[in-house]
Amino acid sequence: MLFKTVSVVGLGYIGLPTAAVLASKKIKVIGVDIDQKAVDIINNGEIHIVEPGLDVLVHAAVNQGYLRAVTKPEPADAFLIAVPTPFRATSSEIPEPDLSFIEKATKAIAPVLKKGDLVILESTCPVGSTEKMGDWLAESRPDLTFPQQVGDSAEINIAHCPERVLPGHVIRELVQNDRVIGGISSHCSDRAVSLYKIFVEGDCAITNARTAEMTKLTENSCRDVQIAFANELSMICDKLDINVWELISLANRHPRIDILQPGPGVGGHCIAVDPWFIINKTPREAVLIHAARKVNLNKTSWVEGKIRSLIGDLLIDHPNSSVSDISIVCFGLTFKANIDDVRESPALEIVRKLAGLFGGQISVVDPYLNQLPIDLIGRVNLGEMSESIRKLSIAVILVDHDLFKEVEFNRYEKILDTRGLTEKNIFL
Fold it and tell me: Do residues 191 and 236 both lie within one domain?
């Protein structure tokens, strides 16, 4: 069956690029989002997020009539759900997955479903969520049959296909990367493949829904463990007076060693989040994954402690000065280089902690942000790289934006480099 109209529910960092790429293939796409402002921006042919190449795709798709945005779902032949899956705070150190966005999106599309429709969950989620989505749909539409009830003969097909793209390269990777597709039945998988093959040049590997869900969680948990090793190594090297950047470079000369680079923690709405889905589901078994999460979470506190130590060193070097004479310039606030995304950013967490201690003495330099997050407005300054530097100043490098490679950090009295951009006066 051909897909003449596709609905993408959730027009964020994944949903909007997916909608635009589909529309570029001359497919009618209806984007759905509860944010009226985002809907208006998209219908004007513009974008509300930063992603290279996305603005051109959206502008063309809207002007040619292949993409439009709405706040309530409309009938379509296929529905891609790409909404957030945050966590609820609990009394335990292990957070609880919040599936309310998926549930609301599922129940929102239920009234417009018709026989032959395909529903795909792209949101990263705990194992079993796709089956749960099928149950929500069945409860809402008892007049239709679903694959968890009757298998391949179901009137509605359901599958899971996790996104696996890199911010800053989303458009290219949506097309070129392989996809893992897990249907609740084999027919569901086949139909999902036929949809993705409209724009995916990579392979579409078929499995079941639970394995597809676990694949995405496994990929990002693996990265989290690898980064935790590098971060733990950086703290060990600091204690032993060893340059961790040189050490990793030397160790990586071994043909079977590929250690990642350390940083101030781990951020983003994937690597910093996805391991918790596994830990929450299997807390007794996920020992290594949980330990890695703790290492990466604790790295931000460790960095804050190093900044305090630098402040102490400055006061010793300048005994007639006080803490109020010291300025702290933090380079970068996003969770990774060359993007505007601050979700789960360790840099942001560090700046928040510093703001609570030193207030107006903190400046942030980030070429990808036009304004600070709301909770930092009035508490820290959003500066420019060209601004004059006070004598008693500390540069804290938290993100390795390409533009920061041009900064003369040796103008600062002290440097805390969590990204390995400098060669001298390194503390990490």
Answer: no
Active-site residue among 161, 188, 204, 270? 270
Looking at the fold, whether 58 and 184 belong to one and the same domain comes out as yes
Range 113-135 burial, b when 16+ CB lie within 10 A, else e: beeebbbbbbbbbbbebbbbbbe
Q: What is the pTM of this model?
A: 0.91
Specify whether 168 is located in the same domain as 229. Answer: no
> Which CATH number is 121's domain given?
3.40.50.720
Gap between the terminal Cα atoms of the chain:
57
Catalytic residue flag (residue 204): no
State the Cα–Cα distance between residues 169 and 172, nearest whole angstrom: 6
Last residue of a domain, one of 160, 181, 207: 207
**Can you give the residue range of the structural domain that contains 174?**
5-207
Q: Which run of H or E residues covers position 61? A: helix 54-63
If one counts the domains in the chain, the total is 2
Task: Identify whether residues 183 and 242 lie together within a single domain.
Answer: no
Along the 428 residues of the chain, how does pLDDT read in single tens digits?
A: 589 999 999 999 999 999 999 999 999 999 999 999 999 999 999 999 889 999 999 999 999 999 999 999 999 999 999 999 988 878 788 999 999 999 999 999 999 999 999 999 999 999 999 999 999 999 999 999 999 999 999 999 999 999 989 888 999 999 999 999 999 999 999 999 999 999 999 999 999 999 999 999 999 999 999 999 999 999 999 999 999 999 999 999 999 999 999 999 999 888 999 999 999 999 999 999 999 999 999 999 999 999 999 999 999 999 999 998 999 999 999 999 998 889 899 999 999 999 988 877 899 999 999 889 999 998 998 887 766 666 689 999 999 999 999 888 888 999 999 999 986 545 55
How many CA atoms does the CB half-sphere of 266 hold within 13 Å? 29
Checking 85-92 for CB contacts under 8 A at 24+ apart, the result is 85/123, 85/124, 85/125, 85/273, 87/273, 87/276
Candidates 125, 161, 188, 216; catalytic one: 216
Phi/psi for 18 (5° steps) reads -65, -45
Chosen domain end from 156, 182, 207:
207
Is 270 assigned a catalytic role?
A: yes
- Whether 256 maps to a domain, the answer reads yes
Does 129 fall in a domain?
yes
Q: 325 lies in a domain?
A: yes
Q: Judge whether 218 lies within some domain.
A: no
Is residue 158 domain-shared with residue 239, that is, in the same domain? no
